[in-house]
TrEMBL record:
Pfam families on file: Transgly (PF00912), Transpeptidase (PF00905)
TM spans (from-to): 36-58
Record protein name field: Transglycosylase domain-containing protein
Record-annotated Penicillin-binding protein transpeptidase domain positions: 360-638
Segments for region (Disordered): 1-27, 688-775
Lineage, broadest ranks: Bacteria, Bacillati, Bacillota, Bacilli, Lactobacillales
Keywords tagged on the record: Carboxypeptidase, Glycosyltransferase, Hydrolase, Membrane, Multifunctional enzyme, Protease, Transferase, Transmembrane, Transmembrane helix
Length: 775
């Protein structure tokens, strides 16, 4: 018994020795680490599985890739409105070269430059991706290696859009999947052949064989190491590495390729150094084979194409490597006719080849730009200055419906017979006087007469009543915004383009809806994805305003005193406005009387709006003025073009909307917004309108009276000063100077004193030394 007890005590004593004093959890830190590690591994595994699942999910919807897609060119094809190809940038000048005719030196240069592990990877190279990331950080790759393999680049060029918006995870996954397939289905030599024939090489050239002929006038097999290295390095940035335009950049790039080849052990360092010592211009040809689809056709559509490419670029497309199919709104018939009118001899006798034209034609019902001319007699220049979209020339009096009379009808309810004053005017806060084209005053006349005859003073007085803020807002509704605050002088001259003006006048044609002008209707990318484009119409003015402006502007061409009689087309329902922009006072004595810097005509039917600018690029150069007789050339261009357009469309007149009331004034048909017949208070004008003008309108109530100028004192003062103060040149061409002095409440009395009328009559008798023909 005692022996057993002793044994138990001995065991208990041993156990007590083994057990540490106090409670303790053994190996707690290790267990926590293992748990964290397990969670991390689980997350990584799940992430890999999810990534793999997403990769294969995206891969299933990848587009098909064929030998045809791999071997075809990546030029941008442009189609007209009827689906006919009008341009294939560089496509016809692409000379395909078979693998057997590709020098081994070029293959080695391309591989060394684009993908050193090309012969070892399977189309996608994880090692390359990590190496490229490290090299880009450390700068050890000579700037030559990116993350994509050469095979991936080929896939990208063959089936995918290059638009920035399409650079997504889905597309990257599909690109990698297709690269694996291409590497599996085709040999390395085939892949190289496709790549060398597909890349863009600048100047509308695709493929290195074509580039060899374009830059050197030889085939690839006749080029030396330095020349082949240059071509191999160009695809990364073909424009910047063009040896004829940027020789320094091209040499730097070529030398990097040679260093990469030496580093890849395909040439020796001595060979690289010898080639680097070769002049970059060695062997370059001075003449280049044209890359246009059809030189004659390309010339006709040059300005339109340039604007198409600008529109594509703004949407994020790459027109040089995108392989795009671009469908435009171009009416080739209208385009050819417009080109013939301004470049041929069968329509108009132009004063010289330096006399220029810019014109845009817009469909009023949707904003589609159907034709555009950016110049005439431009020689061999391609994609040069597009005068149809330039905004550095004054629109002159074509601004009057846009900034003066349109807002006056819209906001002040002016009837077409609104009395407006053609009396002496000095811009507020200045000594600058404003004159009409004939340097005479007609006293109080109707708004219709002022617009038809293009009188300047009534237009600016009307703008003064409307206020710059409301006029600017009206212009914004017509797609026109400006960096600087507009002034009264802009009422007879805005710096806008023919494209902007055609689109704005199109809103008059369609009843008041503005459509932003656009040329591209659809783009199909290499993966077959179609992107459609259109303009959403926005109400810019009431139907009443559009109709009343149109009705008045009909007289510009039909009235015996209209300023646009040279644009008249018998039997055609049309409306429009002229504009001529005179030289400033300090230059006026250097040109003949009546000479102008710019001459415009913008007109429209219910089917087309056509805006035409004419003038010289260097308007202050000796002899580069538009004579008084030549100011009608813009009208004649319009007339010939609109006659063609009218022959292929319906001829229908505008009908007054229900918000407009017809009345008779002095035996003539006039219109007013229903409920706003207006009041004629000027005694000098009552005999013109008859008794129907005695009806008052809420628009002319005592708390919101509409007037022409400021007070009688100011007007009388300007009349007195007109013979002694500084004379205003055609203010159409010089915005600024003259206080805007207006907000939306800048209105004064519609009545004018007899004293003012007498002063105006006296001033009318003044015989100016020269005519200031500002239309």
């Amino acid at each position: 018994m005692s022996s057993n007890n002793q044994t138990r005590q001995t065991r208990m004593s041993r156990n007590a020795e083994r057990t540490p004093s106090g409670p303790q959890k053994p190996h707690t830190g290790w267990r926590t680490f293992r748990r964290i590690l397990f969670v991390i591994v689980a997350i990584v595994v799940l992430g890999l599985l999810a990534g793999a699942g997403l990769f294969f999910f995206y891969a299933q919807s990848a587009p098909k890739i064929t030998a045809g897609a791999l071997s075809s060119d990546t030029s941008t094809r442009v189609y007209d409105a009827n689906g006919r190809v009008i341009s294939r940038l560089g496509a016809q000048n692409r000379n395909y070269v078979k693998n057997k005719n590709i020098p081994d030196t070029l293959k080695k240069a391309v591989v060394s430059t684009e993908d050193r592990r090309f012969y070892k990877n399977n189309g996608v190279d994880p090692i390359r991706i990590m190496g490229a990331a490290f090299a880009n950080v450390t700068g050890s790759s000579l700037g030559m290696q990116g993350g994509s393999t050469l095979t991936q680049q080929l896939v990208k060029l063959s089936v995918f859009s290059t638009a920035a918006s399409d650079r997504t995870l889905k597309r990257k996954a599909q690109e990698a999947w297709l690269a694996l397939k291409v590497d599996h289905d085709y040999s390395k030599n085939q892949i190289l052949e496709y790549y060398i024939n597909k890349v863009y090489m600048g100047n509308g050239v695709y493929g290195m064989q074509t580039a060899a002929q374009y830059y050197y006038g030889k085939t690839l097999k006749h080029l030396d190491l330095a020349q082949l290295a240059l071509l191999a390095g160009m695809p990364q940035s073909p424009t910047n590495y063009d040896p004829t335009t940027y020789p320094a950049l091209a040499k730097k790039r070529r030398d990097l390729v040679l260093e990469a080849m030496a580093k890849n052990n395909v040439i020796t360092s001595a060979q690289a150094q010898q080639a680097e010592a070769t002049s970059i211009s060695a062997g370059l040809t001075k003449t280049h084979k044209s890359t246009s689809t059809n030189p004659k056709t390309t010339k006709v559509i040059d300005a339109y194409l340039k604007q198409v490419y600008a529109e594509l670029k703004s949407k994020g497309y790459n027109t040089t490597t995108g392989g795009l199919k671009v469908y435009t709104n171009l009416d080739m018939g209208a385009q050819k006719r417009l080109y013939d009118i301004v470049n041929g001899t069968g329509y108009i006798s132009f004063p010289s080849d330096n006399f220029q034209v810019g014109s845009t034609i817009v469909n009023p019902n949707n904003g589609q730009v159907v034709a555009m001319i950016g110049g005439r007699k431009t020689g061999n220049v391609t994609f040069g200055l597009n005068r149809a979209v330039q905004t550095d020339r004054s629109s002159a009096s074509t601004a009057k419906p846009l900034m003066d009379y349109g807002p006056a009808i819209e906001h002040l309810y002016y009837p077409t017979y609104e009395p407006v004053k053609d009396t002496a005017f000095t811009y507020p806060g200045t000594d600058k006087n404003l004159y009409d084209w004939d340097r005479r005053y007609q006293g109080t006349i109707t708004m219709r007469k002022a617009l038809v005859e293009s009188r300047n003073i009534p237009a600016v007085r009307t703008l003064q009543n409307v206020g710059i803020k409301r006029a600017t807002a009206f212009l914004k509704g017509l797609g026109m915004t400006f960096d600087k605050t507009l002034t009264l002088q802009n009422g007879i001259g805005l710096y806008i383009s023919s494209e902007q003006e055609a689109a704005a006048y199109a809103a008059f044609a369609n009843g008041g809806t503005y459509y932003k002008p656009y040329l591209v209707s659809k783009v199909v990318t290499q993966d077959g994805k179609a992107h459609k484009y259109s303009a959403t119409g926005k109400r810019a003015m009431s139907a009443a305003t559009a109709f009343m402006l149109t009705d008045m502007m009909k007289g510009v061409m039909t009235n015996e005193n209209g300023s646009g009689r040279s644009a008249a087309i018998s039997g055609l329902y049309q409306a429009g406005k002229t504009g001529t922009d005179s030289y400033p006072d300090d230059y006026a004595d250097k040109v003949p009387d009546g000479a102008t810097m710019d001459s415009w005509f913008t007109g429209y039917t219910k089917n087309y709006a056509v805006s035409v600018w004419t003038g010289y690029d260097k308007q202050f150069q000796t002899g580069h003025y538009v004579s008084e007789a030549q100011t009608t050339i813009a009208q004649e261009i319009y007339k010939y073009e609109m006659s063609y357009l009218a022959s292929k469309s319906t001829n229908t007149d505008w009908t007054a909307p229900s918000t407009v009331t017809e009345t008779t004034q002095n035996g003539s048909k006039e219109y007013y917004i229903t409920g706003h017949a207006g009041t004629v208070a000027d005694t000098t004008a009552t005999s013109q309108y008859g008794s129907t003008n005695t009806t008052s309108s809420s628009a002319y109530s005592s708390n919101n009276q509409v007037t022409t100028n400021s007070n009688t004192t100011q007007t009388s003062s300007s009349t007195t000063e007109s013979s002694t103060s500084k004379e205003s040149s055609s203010t159409e061409q010089t915005p600024g100077g003259g206080n805007a002095g207006d907000d939306d409440d800048n209105t004064t009395s519609n009545s004018t004193s007899t004293t003012e009328s007498s002063s105006a009559t006296t001033t009318t008798q003044k015989s100016p030394d020269k005519s200031n023909d500002d239309d």
